[in-house]
Amino acid sequence: MTVRLVHLVTLGWATAAWVGLLMAGFALDAALAAYPGANGRIVLEGQSGRLVSVNPDGSVPVDLGVTGTNPAVSPNGQTVVFESGGALSTIRADGGTGSLRPLGTGAEPVFSPDGAFIAFERNGDIWRMRKDGTGSTRLVTGGTDPAYSPNGRRLAFARDSTIRTVNAQGGEEKRLRGGLERPPQHLAWSPDGGSIAFTSELDGYIASIYQMNSDGSGLRLFREGDSYCYTGPTAGCHPMAYTHFSRPEYSPDGSTLAFSDQRADYDSSLPPGEQLKIYSWVKTAPVGSAQGNDEYVYAGGAPAWQPLNPPANDMFAGAKVLSGSDVSAKGKNFAATKEAGEPQHAGISGGTSVWYRWKATAAGQVTMDTCGSDFDTLLGVYTGASVSQLTTVAANDDAACAGASTLQSKVTFAAEAGRTYRIAVDGYTGVWGRIALHVTLSG
Ligand SMILES: [Ca+2]
Ligand SMILES: [Ca+2]
Fold first, then answer.
1. pTM score, two decimals?
2. What end-to-end distance do the CA atoms of the chain give, in Å?
């Protein structure tokens, strides 16, 4: 549903219109999300109305640089689609308005599990389009709150007091569950395919989160919203204090639900008439946990959980092989990690390394650089067969590329014929980006 709670406006959450910068986006991997996935960061609408990305414990907040709400993260974890002023856009998960791409009118967006499509609401119907905003088609007439099954074959959606599914390309509809007391909203399908979570809202104030099996059976309450009347010196029920649990979102590993916890509570230290305070938090709790076992994450709402899929050459043992005397390789260190025993490249704390190996076909001067990469790189070149027993050949943090000083890296050394060199490209303090790596051997 696109209806915003009235009380959010009082918090200054009103959505501002903004003008987007169109940019030719990078092509993204269309790999299916694997279950169980690894949990990345949580993207949410912060109290300022801007999208914020935080670690699941709320640490290291990053302002994504845009006003928006209802974010969803792509299966490869690299792109966020979100709603702002009645329109949808995508942005890189690490932010930056330079990657902003407007997609057109819509609400409640969600990526398909292969990352190729975005399903969304438009004028009370459910549509899908390609991730670049082209090819919009209506899948369902009369429906809200789409959620893909993890295998991508079905879309769950809400219509009146029922939860239904439809083929991901449209067509045949199935009713999973009817007779719900109140219209369901904010559907989320668990990564193992077994459960669907949703919000049930009483009157715009009180709301609860339910789960059910994905065949519609086994309805169970996860978090129950409630209301109460104040009994202090200014006793009364106008306005009422209440709790509002909404927007459940499964962690990629399936163990945890993130959700919005909004509440109005009395603060008797304030003057009469101003005692009702509104709070909005993102919290997490284990999927089967009882009420009250919630972890505070961050002030705000509408959480979306980022799946992490480290690159194939994250580990030393999975190094990508480069061959030739003049090699250009493209790569990414998104979601890459530091492994046990790994040295600090160029003596600097990185944390998001990927590995390459290159064998010198002849003796000569070799230059290796990361010029053209779009992040602050570290470069380390080693010999040795084990990540914890490497001998440093050369290392660099920042170097000149094409005559200008940059945050990219470059090394030059004398290569021995037939020797295999191990190359680590890392992100300075663990940043992520797209790698351009060049190896040039001159005889
Ligand atoms: Ca690594
Ligand atoms: Ca650097």
1. 0.76
2. 66
